[in-house]
Specification:
42% strand; 1 helix; alpha+beta
Length: 158
Amino acid sequence: MTGRTTRTLAVALSLTAALAISGCSGDAEPKMAVSGAFMPQPVNDKMAGGFMVIKNGSETADKLTGITSSLSDDLQIHETKDQKMQQVQSMDVPANGELRLERGGNHIMFMGLKSTPKVGDKVTVELRFEKAGPVKVELDVKDRTYNAQAPSTAGNAH
């Protein structure tokens, strides 16, 4: 009877371990990818905007919760509603979706710049998320009038 109980217990533990491992794969950390990151050349050292598209390639929704950069000690996440921008604590990055940070819409604000980047420079930021690990991004400093065009999905049937 002792051998049978031991085997039953071993099978039960093996099944429990297998279920626990397979369960973990469903809670996988979101996979973030960033494209089109840029900063228009700032007019002065008071503030600057940052723009990009953050893509979440996983089944798990996440939130952008913060940004750090050596260019400024005060980086903020701003949403734009009714043509007014306001600071928010986080922004949703939907599962298998994207968060667009663009002119006239949601964006990152650099307040009190330590220097004034010029066209052609690169500004490194680290994006922080609620679930995903941090993501380092280089923003290309572009002309003040530069505005990235949203990629067209027409004809892209991959």
